Amino acid sequence: DLRQESHGFLNGIPVSWYGNDNEQNIGMNLAEVEADEQQRFGNLPGTTITAYSSDSKKARSMEIPVETWMMEKELAESEGFGYLRLPATDHEWADPELIDEFIAFVKTLDTDHVWLHYHCKAG
Fold it and tell me: Interior CA angle at 57 toward 36 and 68, to 5°?
């Protein structure tokens, strides 16, 4: 997961918080991003939120009475997938430390039995 922006699932629906140019959490490290997600999502059960589409062609909103929330890592692991998050700011090169962490991770993989799925807004 390359998304630096806070995101997760509300009632199983994927949601993200956005700032201008998708820079909501610019400058935050992984622990800070995860703490932001815990604070934002953890306060939502029992409330109703208004969610907006990020697709300007679909400019619509939806009221969601929040019952449950889950971080993406929890969802992936509950389905039997491994999960690695390297929070990179959109439209910028990743920090050298994140690149090194990714390379070190790849070197640990059994390349005959692995599938990597990359998750970021740009695809």
Answer: 35
92 within some domain: yes
Residue 123 falls within a domain, yes or no?
A: no
Say what the pTM is.
Answer: 0.80
Is 80 within a domain? yes
pLDDT reading at 101 higher than 90: yes
DSSP secondary structure of 69-119: EE-HHHHHHHTT-------B-TTSPPPHHHHHHHHHHHHTS-TTS------
pLDDT at 123 over 60: no
Tell me: pLDDT of 19 over 80: no
Give phi and psi for 30, each to the nearest 5.
Answer: -60, -45
pLDDT value of residue 121? 61
Cα separation, 51 vs 66, whole angstroms:
11
CATH of the domain at 49: 3.30.70.1690
Q: What's the total number of domains in the chain?
A: 1
Question: What values do phi and psi take at 17, rounded to 5?
Answer: -95, 135
| Domain hosting residue 57, numbered range | 7-107
